[in-house]
């Protein structure tokens, strides 16, 4: 599978998340305050809640329902009640296009 366009970079708002879907895989797409674009799994691992509806703070995305914050870099939860990470996807910027391949996870090591 190859990377697919999910949004225009110019459409993203800083420190905000949007929900995108690639081949049935829901993702939260975030432009952080440093201008970096992140894509993480959109479903909170504590409950079936869309993370894209949450709050961006620096390099974290907080679930609006129960307050678990996830690292945009590693997908790891930073506080309870969530204790399982969400997947983190590799993002490619090509001009104004934001591309993601849902089969390629970002190397977080």
Helices and strands in order, then pairings?
Blueprint: E1 4-8, E2 16-22, E3 25-31, E4 37-41, E5 55-57, E6 60-62, E7 69-71, E8 88-94, E9 97-105
Antiparallel strand pairs: 1-9, 2-3, 3-4, 4-8, 5-6, 6-7, 8-9
InterPro entries: Rieske_2Fe-2S, Rieske_2Fe-2S_sf
Domain Rieske: 4-100
Keywords: 2Fe-2S, Iron, Iron-sulfur, Metal-binding
How many helix segments? 0
CATH superfamily: Rieske [2Fe-2S] iron-sulphur domain
Share of helix, binned: under 10%
For the record, give the distance between the C-alpha atoms at the N and C termini, rounded to a whole number. 23 Å
Structural class: mainly beta
At the first level of CATH, what is the class? Mainly Beta
Largest sheet: 6 strands, antiparallel
| Average pLDDT for all residues | 95
So what's the overall shape? globular
Secondary-structure element order, N to C: EEEEEEEEE
Beta-strand percentage range:
35-45%
Structure report:
Pfam families: Rieske (PF00355). Residues 4-100 form the Rieske domain. The strands form 2 sheets. This protein has a 6-stranded antiparallel beta sheet, with no helix packed on it. The chain is mainly beta and 109 residues long. The chain has a single domain (4-105), classed as 3-layer Sandwich (Rieske Iron-sulfur Protein). The protein has strands at 4-8, 16-22, 25-31, 37-41, 55-57, 60-62, 69-71, 88-94, 97-105.
């Amino acid at each position: 599978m190859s990377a697919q366009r999910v949004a225009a970079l110019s459409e993203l708002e800083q420190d905000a998340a949007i929900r995108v879907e690639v081949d049935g895989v829901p993702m939260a797409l975030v432009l952080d305050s440093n201008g970096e674009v992140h894509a993480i799994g959109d479903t909170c691992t504590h409950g079936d809640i869309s993370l894209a509806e949450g709050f961006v703070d620096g390099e974290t995305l907080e679930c609006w329902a129960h307050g678990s914050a996830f690292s945009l870099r590693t997908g790891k939860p930073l506080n309870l009640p969530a204790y399982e990470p969400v997947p983190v996807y590799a993002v490619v910027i090509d001009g104004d296009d934001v591309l993601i391949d849902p089969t390629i996870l970002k190397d977080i090591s």
